[in-house]
Amino acid sequence: MQYLLSGGQACIFYGGTEFSRDADIVVLASAGNLAALQAALRELDAEQIFVPPLEAEFLDRGHACHFRCRCPGAEGIRLDVMSVLRGCDPFPNLWARRAAVEVQGTGEVPVLSLPDLVQSKKTQRDKDWGHIRRLVESDYLARRSEADEEDMLWWLAELRTAPYLIELVRARPELVTRVERRRWLAERGLRGEDAIGAALLDEEQQERADDRAYWAPLRRELEHLRQSRRSDG
């Protein structure tokens, strides 16, 4: 089965710790892959707890499908399944960039790449912005002494810790024009933490607004499905 661990459990593997018994996965919404997922859900004795049903048409439009596991050893664990992540590439691209983590007693688990995980966390939820900061900061501190140009470009694009972002701008100013943040990095990167902080906040607020706009029609569709289910019942 083609799936990628995402969400809080993936954050743990990259050093952005989140303690949660829930799990989020991204799956390929093909007929064969969904059949394999259904088989796995039966093994977990997982019941669906919200609409929509686990079908490709809903997954392809960006919906999440939610389950609660009941089998011994996994009782109460919630599993959220998606196929499309706002702002992220299609699943085949995510799969090609995946990381692999060896889990004792389980074996190799495919996980969203760090850049894809960070992108997927740009939501309207407060906690996700803390995760983004910790994930990118941890990567920067762990690898900055041996980083290549591609690493530095990603950090320039994603760091949310003002002192480290200023440090990087000062160290490699010639890279600034190659990232989307160039509109304010070149201007504010040498002006101190307050200027950087204000720009980061503007960025975050725009991403939150984009996420609300993305989910608004999907939420309306879910409400219609709930009302239809109540009417049928």
Describe this structure in words.
By secondary structure, the chain is of the alpha+beta class. The protein has two domains: 114 residues, no CATH class; 87 residues, no CATH class. A hairpin with a 3-residue loop joins strand 6 and strand 7. Helix 8 crosses helix 10. It is globular, with a radius of gyration of 20 Å. The chain starts with a strand and ends with a helix. 29% of the residues are buried.
The tally of strands reads 7
Q: Note the main sheet.
A: 5 strands, mixed
- The coarse silhouette is globular
N-C termini distance: 34 Å
H/I helix tally: 10
Low-confidence spans: none
Rg over CA atoms:
20 Å
Q: What amount of the residues lies in strands? A: 5-15%
Question: Which structural class should the secondary elements be placed in?
Answer: alpha+beta
Total number of distinct structural domains: 2
Strands of the widest sheet, in order across it, are 1-2-5-4-3
Indicate the mean pLDDT. Answer: 92
| H/E series | EHEHEHEEHEEHHHHHH
Q: Helical content, roughly?
A: 40-55%
Can you summarize this structure?
This protein is an alpha+beta fold and 233 residues long. It contains ten helices and seven strands.
List the helices and strands and how they pair.
Layout: E1 3-6, H1 7-13, E2 23-27, H2 31-43, E3 47-48, H3 56-60, E4 65-68, E5 78-82, H4 91-96, E6 99-103, E7 107-111, H5 114-120, H6 126-143, H7 149-158, H8 162-171, H9 182-188, H10 193-232
Helix pairs in contact: 8-10
Name its key features.
about 230 residues; alpha+beta; 2 domains; five-stranded mixed sheet; two-stranded antiparallel ribbon; 10 helices; 7 strands; about 15% strand
